């Protein structure tokens, strides 16, 4: 399933079409600026021929006034053209960032596949900015064409050869500029890819810094980032070299073109075909052409970079969804009965069991891969290859993922905290009373150890807290959400035994009559459950914790 954005070309088209009003307005204003710039050397030539040569003070004042009015008009056009084009660029980039964020946060998932979080951030910032920058370049590309056209018309009136030289020479020059930009486009795309990889790995390493230090893997992590950073640097250097070659080649072509125009104009003046004022105008127009041709260079470079970035944006927007959107609805109210019917996914093979509404169930898996597969199916991160997971008789695959997750919440073991206070992290903007969840998860004890209690501000990902404190805040957040079905994965691995027992009792109390699944090997948590399911991927056994401890395999998994 695709989102309807098949290519970078479509991304560019959509980004530009949303800013049509500003692009048209800024193009007209920028064209007025370029036309005014082209008329300046023409007016200077007229002043020389009509006023200076004739010796008329009145004519001199008149034409100088016309020249001043032209300067005032062209400067005003430039000011408002830049304002409109920059607004179009920023709005276009903003719209792209919004669309990327919407795609990444889509409940159906899939956009994150093959991307580290830092890489997605790079695409949503730098690549979106480069695509948006095309909106500020296009109006000036149009204005440069207007400037060349005005120059050609004026020169045609002065001299047909000069006018034809501009009209016939400009199209091949523009085509050459386009060809020269191709290598830059390719290397710009590689540069952005390498930069995104480096950003992604850096974010990944910073997020796991404490773990890396704990296992003594700093050197390996530094070496990994060094390799990625070196690749990014090499790609940037190659891209910079391509830009330098691109700009130098275009500057040389522009210089040759202008030199030819000036040479032809000089020969015509020497032969008497042009007056002194017309010669001055012709030379001035030849110098003026350097501006539009330089603009073509800038526009071509931005187009090359923007096209490469648009392809990367399109790859995210067009990523297939991990799961489909269903159309069925859950019965109201949600009772919370969960059924696995022959579910096969990854390490799960034909899993078949029921969890009654309001039951507190522990789940012990013989391997981490089985737990991962179970959680993926319950969270509807994937749909099983065969079989179905049902909630109150409705298959999760037939529900909209967002609706399924409102009714069945999976609290991951490695859940991140956010910047803000401890209380903000627990509430998550909910108006529901969070005090019971705070007590049940032991966050009240955490708050007593913090300088501002529950109002203590946390750093990024909550790294100002210890591992156990973060786990308790994350658990309190899940409990405060109070979904009909709550699935919690190893919520107490970083807390001491006394605190773990208190949390186990708190979970049982706060989730009384609400379906709760504890995927864990903690004896303290399993002891408070109504029963325990033991999954080994191909079979399911169940019983109370006190009964199962006599089983050697269960003891190995739980008590070892």
From TrEMBL:
Query: Out of the domains of life, which is the source?
Result: Bacteria
Record flagged with keyword Transmembrane helix = yes
Q: Name one GO molecular function term.
A: ATP binding
Family matches, as Pfam families:
ABC_membrane, ABC_tran
Q: Which CDD domains match?
A: ABC_6TM_exporters
Domain ABC transmembrane type-1 stretches: 24-305
* Keywords attached to this entry: ATP-binding, Membrane, Nucleotide-binding, Transmembrane, Transmembrane helix
Q: How does it sit in the membrane?
A: Multi-pass membrane protein
Domain (ABC transporter) ranges: 328-560
Q: Where in the cell is it found?
A: Cell membrane
Q: What is the lineage of its organism?
A: Bacteria, Bacillati, Actinomycetota, Actinomycetes, Pseudonocardiales
Mind telling me which residue stretches traverse the membrane in this protein?
21-48, 60-81, 131-156, 162-181, 248-270, 282-303
Protein name, entry field = ABC transporter ATP-binding protein
């Amino acid at each position: 399933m695709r989102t309807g954005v098949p290519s970078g070309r479509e991304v560019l088209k959509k980004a530009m079409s949303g800013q049509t009003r500003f692009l048209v307005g800024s193009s007209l204003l920028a064209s007025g600026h370029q036309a005014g710039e082209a008329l300046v050397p023409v007016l200077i030539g007229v002043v020389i021929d009509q006023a200076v040569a004739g010796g008329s003070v009145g004519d001199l004042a008149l034409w100088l006034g016309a020249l001043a009015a032209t300067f005032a008009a062209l400067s005003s056009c430039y000011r408002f053209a830049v304002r409109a084009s920059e607004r179009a660029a920023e709005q276009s980039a903003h719209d792209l960032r919004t669309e990327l964020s919407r795609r990444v946060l889509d409940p159906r998932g899939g956009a994150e596949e093959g991307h580290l979080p830092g890489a997605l951030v790079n695409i949503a910032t730098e690549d979106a900015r480069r695509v948006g920058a095309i909106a500020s370049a296009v109006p000036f590309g149009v204005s440069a064409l207007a400037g060349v056209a005005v120059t050609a018309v004026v020169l045609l009136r002065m001299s047909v050869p000069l006018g034809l030289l501009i009209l016939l020479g400009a199209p091949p020059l523009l085509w050459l500029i386009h060809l020269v930009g191709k290598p830059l486009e390719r290397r710009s795309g590689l540069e952005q890819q390498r930069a995104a990889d480096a950003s992604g790995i850096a974010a990944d390493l910073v997020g796991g810094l404490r773990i890396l230090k704990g296992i003594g893997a700093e050197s390996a992590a530094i070496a990994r980032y060094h390799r990625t950073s070196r690749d990014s640097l090499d790609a940037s250097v190659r891209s910079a070299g391509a830009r330098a070659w691109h700009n130098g080649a275009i500057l040389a072509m522009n210089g040759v073109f202008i030199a030819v125009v000036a040479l032809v104009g000089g020969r015509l003046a020497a032969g008497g075909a042009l007056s002194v004022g017309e010669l001055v105008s012709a030379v001035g127009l030849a110098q003026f052409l350097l501006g539009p041709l330089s603009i073509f260079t800038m526009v071509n470079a931005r187009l090359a970079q923007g096209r490469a970035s648009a392809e990367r944006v399109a790859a995210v927007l067009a990523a297939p969804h991990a799961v489909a959107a269903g159309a069925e609805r859950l019965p109201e109210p949600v009772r919370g009965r969960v059924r696995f019917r022959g579910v096969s996914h990854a390490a799960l093979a034909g899993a078949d069991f029921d969890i009654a509404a309001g039951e507190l169930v522990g789940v012990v898996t013989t391997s981490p891969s089985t737990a991962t597969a179970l959680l993926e199916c319950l969270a509807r991160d994937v749909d099983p290859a065969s079989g179905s997971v049902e909630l109150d008789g409705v298959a999760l695959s037939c529900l909209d993922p967002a609706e399924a997750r409102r009714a069945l919440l999976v609290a991951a073991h490695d859940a991140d905290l956010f910047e803000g206070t401890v209380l903000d992290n627990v509430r998550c903007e909910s108006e529901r009373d969070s005090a019971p969840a705070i007590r049940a998860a032991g966050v009240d004890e955490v708050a007593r150890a913090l300088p501002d209690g529950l109002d203590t501000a946390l750093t990024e990902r909550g790294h100002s807290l210890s591992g156990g404190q973060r786990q308790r805040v994350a658990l309190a957040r899940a409990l405060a959400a109070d979904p009909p079905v709550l699935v919690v994965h190893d919520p107490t691995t970083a807390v001491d035994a006394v605190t773990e027992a208190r949390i186990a009792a708190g979970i049982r109390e706060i989730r009384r009559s609400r379906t709760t699944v504890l995927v864990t090997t903690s004896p303290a948590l399993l002891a408070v459950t109504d029963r325990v399911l033991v999954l080994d991927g191909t079979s399911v056994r169940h019983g109370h914790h006190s009964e199962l401890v006599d089983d050697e395999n269960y003891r190995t998994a739980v008590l070892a």
